[in-house]
Amino acid sequence: MASSPSLENTKQRGGEKPIPLHENVLQKHAAFFDKNHDGVIYPWETFQGLREIGNGIFSSVGLSLFINLGLSQTTRPGKFPSLLFPIEIKNIHLGKHGSDTGVYDTEGRFLPSKFEDIFTKHAHTQPNALTYDELMQMIQANREPKDIKGRIGGLVEWKILYKVAKDKSGLLQKETIRGVYDGSLFEMLKKEHSTHTKK
């Protein structure tokens, strides 16, 4: 009997939610910041998204400028530069930088084997989580020679993630990191932050 197409194109381990292998999950990751759902992310939308997941005001201002300045022209190939620094989600894979984990391929698709490598190579304290030191070791291990832009991008991304998503023990759990790659973590953090600020 033939397998279901949805199962053929997914990877699932244990009770984890499967991620479709054929889909551009990098677009889903970026779509959280597209607040008006027009396929374009402007700096003020990036700022809003960062605030929603628990980032501070000043940090969110700096990061939104850093992110949009870094990705705008890359995701708008052949177009004249815009002073509004928009990011086009359909081309977000073009903004993929070096010195990363390789969990996204060049088309923005999820690679399960690379995701598992994060933990087999770097999770020495607990098999399904990273300490801060292990996270820094992973970032250093992924550095490519002379790739200043990629190194800075990777360091900033992971430090933001650690700041807003570490657990009470100071660990980044495997499912938390998985949620970053498929974009589901952002909605969860938004809900948690919203609940916290209302108390």
Automatic annotation (TrEMBL):
> Which top-level group of life is the source organism from?
Eukaryota
Gene Ontology molecular function terms on file: ATP binding; calcium ion binding; monooxygenase activity
List residues binding ATP.
Answer: 79
Q: Which UniProt keywords apply?
A: ATP-binding, Nucleotide-binding
> InterPro entries this protein is in?
Caleosin-related, EF-hand-dom_pair, Protein_kinase_ATP_BS
Pfam families in alphabetical order = Caleosin
Query: Could you say which protein family the record assigns here?
Result: Belongs to the caleosin family.
Name assigned to this protein = EF-hand domain-containing protein
User: Source species, please?
Assistant: Vigna angularis var. angularis
